[in-house]
UniProtKB/TrEMBL annotation:
Pfam families xrefs: 4HBT_2 (PF13279)
InterPro entries membership: HotDog_dom_sf, THEM6_lcsJ_thioesterase
SUPFAM superfamilies registered for this protein in UniProt: Thioesterase/thiol ester dehydrase-isomerase
Protein name: Thioesterase-like superfamily protein
Amino acid sequence: MYPVLRLMWQLFLHRKSPRLALTGTHVSHHICMPWDIDLWRELNNGRTLTIFDLGRIPLAGRVGLIGTLKRNRWGLAIAGASVRYRRRITMLERIEMRSRLLSWDEKFVYVEQSMWKASGECANHILLRAAITGREGIIAPDRVVAELGQDIAAPALPDWAQAWIAADATRPWPPMQDAQE
């Protein structure tokens, strides 16, 4: 089940947080709840993706994106993700999440998020590709930035992010056309 109450709590906590620069970092704190764990008594990999929403949505609010989406009747769709899981997060463990807009290109925005343990170790890291969508399809990120009242060029994507974008572009679509039954 989607953690609606936890999301509402995060939105409540950050409702009066100062506005962030478009590429500013939103920091939030979370607890791995008993219903977040898997058979190995650690944060489930799928639940990790859902918990990242708890940082990304308040980030969108703090940079002004949520208001812009509502005003224009646009949506936000995740179009790809690459996750690195490096350290276990166990039940009732507290984590710090860092979320930021990394950059954008002609079609997508790229968001970077990470979860940090109390020890200072990074537990996991994700790079997301997202599309702003409207009735006419995908909305160009430059248009969204202008709607946000910003006059900023897309920051240069780091080499590792560019490599992921390039590698992902080589994947066949639709997938598994050569799969045999």
